[in-house]
Amino acid sequence: MKQNNSFVQFVLDQMQDAGSVSCKSMFGGHTVYCDKKIVALICNNQLFVKPTEQGRSVIGRVKEAPPYPGAKPCFLIQDRIDDKEWLCELIRKTAEELPLPKQKNKAKKGKSR
Fold first, then answer.
1. What is the mean pLDDT of the chain?
2. pLDDT score at 2
3. Would the pLDDT of 15 be above 60?
4. What is the value of pTM for the model shown?
5. Which domains are present in the chain?
6. CA–CA distance, 54 with 47 (Å, rounded to integer)
7. Which residues have C-beta within 8 Å of that of residue 2, sequence separation ≥ 6?
8. How far apart (Å, rounded) are the C-alpha atoms in residues 9 and 29?
9. What is the Cα–Cα distance from 23 to 13, expressed in whole angstroms?
């Protein structure tokens, strides 16, 4: 399904006060970062937040669903995307709990003979 870029931009605008928020287009969807941590995915014009205990405490009654076939379930956010303050708190708390991504070694290793 084609991603609606206006939906992606709306979600990012709603999250802007959560921290340093950005996104990258990947595999037909978008990966959302907050403070360099992957916190959510936007797939098929739906917002999926990575599951964390702090996120669960913000949401309360959680609906979980996989963002794409074969993926682990995430928190599916539908009814409160318009609530900017609530969404920022959810993204902030989620980012706080998640670890920073591991650094990739970009240096090429020499071949041993």
1. 90
2. 53
3. yes
4. 0.86
5. 5-97 (3.30.1460.30)
6. 17
7. none
8. 13
9. 11
